[in-house]
TrEMBL record:
InterPro entries: Bact_Sigma-Reg, GAF, GAF-like_dom_sf, HATPase_C_sf, HATPase_dom, PAS, PAS-like_dom_sf, PAS_4
Protein name: PAS domain S-box-containing protein
SMART domains listed in its UniProt record: GAF, PP2C_SIG
Taxonomic placement: Bacteria, Bacillati, Actinomycetota, Actinomycetes, Kitasatosporales
Keyword Protease (UniProt): no
Keywords assigned: Hydrolase
UniProt xrefs under SUPFAM superfamilies: ATPase domain of HSP90 chaperone/DNA topoisomerase II/histidine kinase, GAF domain-like, PP2C-like, PYP-like sensor domain (PAS domain)
Amino acid sequence: MITARAAATFEPVGRSVATARGFVRDTLQGWGLDDLIDDAVVLTSELVTNAVIHAGTSAEVHCLRDAKGVRVEVADRHPERGLPVAEALRGYVDAESEGGRGLMLCAALSTRWGVEYTAVDKRVWFRLDEPELLVGTRSAGPVLPVEKLPTAETPPRVAVVQVDAAHTITAWNDDARRLFGHPAEQVTGKPLPDLAAWPLSPGTGTGIAEALSLSRWEGSYGVRAADGRIVPVYASHLRIRDTHGEPSTVCLLVPEHERAILQGGGRRPGHGGGPRDPMQRGAAPDTLEDLIGTPVPDDLDGLLQRTVERARDMLDGDAAFLLLATDDETELEVRASTGLPSTRQRFARVPVETGSGRYGSARMPAVHEDLAAAPGAVPLLSGTGMHAVVTVPLKVEGRLTGSLGVASESPGRYTNEEALRLQFAADRVALAVESARLTELERLRRGSLSFLVEASELLAGTLDPRQTLALMAQMSVPTLAAWCAVYTITEPGTEPVLSYVLHEDEDRIDGIRHLLERVPPPDPDAGLGVRTWHEPAEAARRKIPLRSSLRSLTLGDLNGVGGGNTPIGQATAAAVGGETVILPLLARNRVIGLLVLGKPADEHFRQETLELAEDLSRRAALALDNARLYSERTAISQSLQRSLLPPGLPAIEGVNVEVEVIYQPAGEGNEVGGDFYDVFPIREGVYGLAIGDVCGTGPPAAAVTGLARHALRLLGREGLGGPAVLERLNAAILDEGARSRFLTLLYGELAARPGGGAELKMVCAGHPLPLRLRPDGTVEPATDPQPLLGVMEDLELHEQTVTLDPGDVLLCVTDGVTERREGTRMLGDDGLAEILKTCTGLNAGAVAAKIKRAVERFASAPLSDDMAILTLRVPE
């Protein structure tokens, strides 16, 4: 039955994927399903990407909560697009296929999944069930048939409650009466669950009735006493057959603080008649619970910490430590300690092989009577004051999984007898530790997958190198490290340049930047791989003086120069005092930078974090290189575009006319447009005007644009008329062969007209016709159309003379204006003429600005083509 619902709709845009992930994450957190979040987020990301990117429709995400888990449904509006379900079920998708990998993730991570089609949508769903946990259960046996249950001849002699198959109390002894205050006649015949205070946790359905149905059960709960108090008890339930052969359950109950009575399980010879203390000196633990106590911690860190504390107490040690092997078993990583500076040692790694300065007792038990006689035998204990130490391996199926050690400040404390006892304890705990480690590793890997999915999307969402650097740092801090720095290499063989610094505490960023600026940058050799970098920590300890002038020093720098130990100096030293690692940023077989990650004082990186950092560095390096290439290409294109346009409008002398030009390229600036304009002097009192559009974009169009603009200037100044200029330009374009492009061009020569006004001799070769606006609001084409250039060899062009009287406006545009579209509507020549009619009385600049605004407002979409507007007006 559905107990909770949540739904949201996301538009078919790229950013919706991240928004959908956040919606699912927030929903599951609100429902208390933290164990399912990582898998749900990864699968939602894949399915929403399929809907909004590949299917191209909006996506509806539904989260349905029930008693066992959650069902997430992602629907799109493209049911015609089928999914490779059969391939995903086989675990194989064709490498050439663009889809299907998300379904393979569904098959791998979810409890169940499926695809449903309707006439209007397609719905992909997956289900994730919560892990089944018996709350409060220490150990449990399976449900057995009645004939398999053991027979009890007499009632137990400890505080006993006996219930029948319906959980009704049938026996209640004197010890139970004394403990809870209920006489037997008051409770006999009543259900035991009415008296039990069961410690249920949210989201679970296990109760005392389920515990009573098991063949055996042990754990803690409460019983309501006659005075209303809840008496905490430790109980052991055993299901048996009574003297009549009917199933019943015997419940042995003791006060919680006396739980050892039921847990000990026998007496040891030579240690008295009472229950033994599993940590008593001279005793070896029989079970995992004997070593670490109950309840057994669910999390790995809690289990490891409890283990070292109990191991220390078992051997009366002053300190204890536990190391876990890395995946390749070549190093041991410190995961828990007591009696040692654990903050300094946590996640520190030491090699397994024997030798000077190495951890030589990993694979076999070892006893050192006095470390002073064998310095470096256990590097973890160097400088701690410990002398005697015993270490034993943790092994699972013969494979080294870790090492457990106990140390004492007194030499000679331990012998082979203590080593055997500690080894016996380690053998009992090794399997539980390995199981918890694998569970943690799986959780970390799933979290890493979710992290990398989000990181890849963020990095792919920008082509700005500075923003890519910032994203790289922000994803590293604080998820992977306390601080980070990014060095970039602009050219092969040059020295890395510090480009970005980030710390989880913003007040420390400047201090770390100043420190890194005065130490040599790391070696960019890719062959060195991921490595430790000691220079920042050593520089912080030495307090190297700055190379800059005293005037530029900050307060934090002055602390370092003077060698004093002020709070600011201490803060910077502490920030970089831990382990620092360098990860090369490799893209296309070359190093383009370095990612430096650091921990605060005396902290180390864990192996899984470094592996995740390597994955991130590879993605970040490629994103940074793509952003750099895009930026360089944009800069080249913009520079080339500027070279194809005149540097500015010349001062028009001798002709009483206003001239204004507006040029607006389309796109993101990485493509060179084909539109151009020019106004240039031909001879005294005569000026050339040109506005044109080359077919296409990019370098081929730019080549023709450059040829046309410069040829017009040269030919016009040679004294040739308009038709002759364009005929020679047409021949030059055709001479380009396969590189030639069609060209529409409006060319004219402007001169003063005797008696006032201006005169234009114009040729309109395939270009949108210029429009003349008279003071009375009349708009008419100023020329006739003629053939465009770059198509035919023999052109017959003729020149037309246009006179501009005082108050007349001449408007020349490229097709980016007239072909502006909104759906099926197009502005066109008629629409432009209607806009121009409203411009009477405006000067040339105002006319151009009004045309530009009208064109932009005609459609909601950004410009898809370059736009050039040239206006001339004769003042009244």
